[in-house]
Amino acid sequence: MPNSIEHIVEPKRLLLTWQSLDEGTTRTRFAVGELTAQPSPAFRYYTEREFFSLNGKSLEAIRSLGYTRYPAFKPERELHTDGVLDAFMRRLPPRSRDDFENYRQHFRLGRGVPISDFALLAVTEAKLPSDGFALVDPLDDTWQRRELLVEVVGHRHYAATCDLDGALGESVQFSPEPANPHDPNAVVVTARGQKAGYINRFQCKAFHVWMREHRLNAVIERMNGEPGYPRIHLFVTVTASKGVIAA
After folding, report:
1. DSSP secondary structure string, 139-192?
2. What is the pLDDT of residues 174-202, one digit of tens each?
3. How far is 99 from 119, CA to CA, in rounded Å?
4. Spatial distance between the Cα atoms of 94 and 86, rounded to a whole number of angstroms
5. CA Rg, the chain, in Å?
6. Which of 50, 57, 90, 181 is the most exposed place for a label (fewest CB within 10 A)?
7. What is the pLDDT at residue 46?
8. 3-state helix vs strand vs coil in the chain, percent to 5
9. Phi-psi region of 125 (alpha: psi -120 to 50; beta: other; left: phi over 0)
């Protein structure tokens, strides 16, 4: 039986990220804007300074990779508030579809567990194969109990030397990699003593907290992908911080 997410932590914000679809360029994911939930859904693009701080590259450099702004939001406006949630929800199948429960189960959402549209965007990341955009939950709330389904980033670079045959359900380990030349906050995923890849860099801050407080466990939940592009997803369980009353 697959694991299931039974505890939803409502996010306050989601990062709009973009990744080039061109295999000949960098596959780095860049944060380009932010979707916030309160007091009502709103979206804004990051300023040039914020963009560089988050990505270590200028906006112009990302444009040279093929990035163009999200078509639903004109760049001339600083803040977008009209129809913001609907614009992103159109990236997901409607809840009214007969097979929507199958869609939920694909993302390991427990049967009958209530979830808001905003949290559903966080869990699914609202990815489409056509444009490189995705929403990433930065996991700002690190103290509550939760479960996550997360993809191991960059696994294809390690798959050839990482023997995980029959590893479904096996535990994985997390460790910091401060000497990483690209990101000193990197978190490595290790399976059977072998490097399998990394945690999404926009979620590493939370994983550092959970590792430090020994509140983190994970198993290999799914192994799939395409020839030349193997993928691994982990089912991650986080216990509540001390002093937090479990629901």
Report:
1. ----SS-EEEEEEPBTGGGTGGG---TT-TT-B-EEEE-TT-SS-TT-EEEEET
2. 999 999 988 999 999 999 999 999 999 99
3. 19
4. 11
5. 18
6. 181
7. 94
8. 20, 30, 50
9. left
pLDDT in tens, 79-130: 999 999 999 999 999 999 999 999 999 999 999 999 999 999 999 999 998 8
DSSP character at residue 208: H
- Rounded to whole angstroms, how far apart are CA atoms 207 and 195? 17
Neighbouring CB atoms inside 10 A of 71's CB total 9
pLDDT per residue as tens digits for the range 148-161: 999 999 998 888 88
Contact 194, 158 (CB under 8 A): yes
* Cβ pair 162, 232 in contact under 8 A: no
CA-CA distance, 166 to 236, in Å (whole number)? Answer: 19
pTM of the model: 0.93
Spell out the residues 6+ positions from residue 16 whose beta carbon is closer than 8 angstroms to its own: 31, 32, 33, 34, 35, 43, 70, 133, 134, 135
Residue pair 153/197 in contact (Cβ under 8 Å)? The answer is: yes
Question: For the chain, what's the residue count?
Answer: 247
Task: Give, in order, the Cα–Cα distances in Å from 177 to each of 49, 156, 225.
Answer: 26, 19, 26
